[in-house]
Model the fold of this input.
Amino acid sequence: MPKKNRIKSFEGYGHQFIASNGIKYHDTFANIYMSMLLSPAFKDLKHRQQMLYIVMKAQYYGKRKPRQDYKDLYDCDEYFYMNFDAVQYYGLYTKYMQKEFRKDKQALIDHGFIELVASGAKTHTKSIFKYSDKWQQWEPAKQ
Done:
C-alpha cells in the first residue's frame, strides 16, 4: 500500500483549523514548481503580484469552484473564484487598495498566468478566472 504524503510541521497544520475570523478551514496547499519560479514571466512580476498568484493557486485545492455552481459552463478545476474581499482576508490588500488589486490581476493576465472568464465587477459578485499556461511562452515587451 502506498504511503500517503503527510504534511510536515513547518509546512502547515495539515488538518482542519480555525482561522482568525473564527471559520473552520481544511489546510490546503498551492503547488508552485521550480520551472514557474524561474520563468521570465514570474520573475518579471512584482512580489505582491507573485503572492497574489500564490493565493489564487491555493483556490485550486481548497475553495468552492464555479463548476459546483455552474456545472454546464465550468466543468473542470482550472476555473476558480476570486474577489477583493478574499484577497483582503489574506492581508495582501487593505480596503483602500482596490486599484492596486485590479492592476495586479491584470499583470497576472498579461503575463499569462490566469484568464478572466467572467467579471463580477458590475454585479458585485465573485469573478471567475481560469489558470493558464501562456506564461510559458511569455516574453518581455521590446522597447
